[in-house]
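QA checklist item 7 of 12: single-chain prediction sanity check.
[x] sequence parsed
[x] length recorded as 128
[x] structure emitted
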Amino acid sequence: MKKIIFLEILNELKAKPHLMKKVKIFAVVGFVGLLITGALTIWAGLTVMNYVAIQATNAVQSPVAQMNIESLKSEVEKLPKLQALSCWNKAQSLIAVQPWLERPALENLANLKSACLEDKITSEGSTI
């Protein structure tokens, strides 16, 4: 049905050359407008990405950000290190419900903490 209507409209346009000329002009103007809009959209996107990149670079290279990064590095060095293998084994053993029913939850969490976090000796001699 739609194909028949389209063919009827096409035949009517072919019968009236001045109308066909107007349709062609309309199609060309629409296509050119679409190309210009697409080009402007791409240009605007690239400009925004460039602006964001420049601003991010300036922010990261600022003295305040450098001080924050250095303080974060020093804080990360103070954190206990993960012991992957024993931690994974302990976590797998605690996935079951039975250990949580047999022992208190704090004891299970303490066992997991001791398996996953490296014991660090503080200046007072106690462990963390």
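[x] summary fact logged: The chain has a mean pLDDT of 80.
[ ] second reviewer sign-off
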